[in-house]
Amino acid sequence: MTRTLALLVGLALAFAPLIGTHAWLPSAEAQFAAWTQAKVLQNAVTTTANGASLDTGGNPIVSLQTSGISAGGQITPEGSLDGTTWAALTCYPLGSITGTALIIATASQAIVRCNVVGVPLVRSRISATGGTITVKGFATQSYFPLGSNAP
Question: What is the pLDDT of residue 151?
Answer without folding.
Answer: 41
